[in-house]
Amino acid sequence: MKHIETIREMQSLALGWKRSGLSIALVPTMGALHAGHVSLIKCACQSVQLSGKVVVSIYVNPLQFSPNEDLAKYPRDLQKDMRICQEAGADAVFTPTDSLMYPFEEKSGDPRLKHSTYAVEETLTQSMEGVARPTHFKGVTTIVAKLFNIVLPDYAAFGNKDFQQAAVIQRMVRDLNFPVQIIRAPIIREDDGLALSSRNIYLSTEERKSALCLNQAIKKAKEKTSKDGLPAEELKLELKTFIENNPNTKVDYIEFFNPETLSPVSLVSTGTQIALAVFVGKTRLIDNDTL
Ligand code: AMP
Fold first, then answer.
1. Is 3.30.70.120 the CATH classification of the domain at 198-290?
2. Which of 27, 33, 40 is the best mutation target for the ligand 1 pocket, counting ligand atoms within 8 Å of the beta carbon and taking the most?
3. Does 3.20.190.10 match the CATH number of domain 2-185?
4. pLDDT band (50, 70, 90) for residue 126
């Protein structure tokens, strides 16, 4: 497995692969890899089969963090991540630095010389994570667009753990005509139902117990859902009370929406998507599922 640290090297490796007729699959990550990421790497391997190449990018993208978020303390363990990528079957790991990805941002005090071109999706980002973290998706779509231009993938794998993110990327690819096929992979969970996340390591033992309430709330919503509609606002209130009965929890949002358009629904029925964000102590966790 190759370790690539510069954009120039990554682009020329990718171009070489393409000229040899090999297809490329990209798995964009921020590192601190776990079984959720491994499942994406395996999906990527399947998409290119034996003759293609799988690239995992590991980059903690500052542009998608708000000033009050956990950029500085975001977990980083490159050695362990490299091991995981190798075992999962990746052909290359791409780990650019901030000064390579945003060189003009750092150097210049002159705003006219700064990095100033962004990819922005304007419809699917108007709810949920886009409201709670107003600059987040501009950072996500911009970095993914940059990675597409650097790694030149035919396929790119995203987890449904970040359901809205995957939908936004899919829309960007459609609207901007990126020749990339997006693969959406299911959420990988711990045995007790907690969705795997690099941020789970922030949780204390007590908080880890409370964190189960996200998946439990989804299960509760599933139990109540039928073909006949259930008023969304009523169910939201019930789930919020259920969640906040657990110590150290605060609901950021609970949304019911159409999984294709992400439009909110007023009646919850079979096939409606639920997504929620909950603070457990200081850690913000998200989860979602189809009801
Ligand atoms: P991150 O490193 O958190 O930016 O995530 C990189 C990719 O892994 C994204 O496409 C996520 O949706 C995906 N991912 C993160 N956690 C999980 C999980 N528990 N199951 C499946 N995919 C995941």
1. no
2. 40
3. no
4. very high
> Ligand 1: distance of its center to the CA of 37 in Å?
6
Predicted confidence at residue 103, as pLDDT, reads 84
Extract the tokens encoding 248. Answer: 């150290």
Q: Which residue has the tokens 């999906």?
A: 43
The whole-angstrom separation of Cα 51 and Cα 66 is 40
Q: Is 37 a catalytic residue?
A: yes
Helix ranges restricted to H, the chain: 7-19, 35-48, 78-88, 98-101, 103-107, 129-132, 136-151, 163-175, 205-210, 213-224, 232-244
Q: Using one digit for the tens of pLDDT, what is the confidence trace for 135-162?
A: 999 999 999 999 999 999 999 999 999 9
Domain boundaries, the chain: 2-185, 198-290
* First-to-final CA distance of the chain: 40
Closest-CA residue, ligand 1 atom 7, reads 29
Q: What is the mean pLDDT of residues 216-244?
A: 95
- Whether the pTM exceeds 0.90: the reply is yes
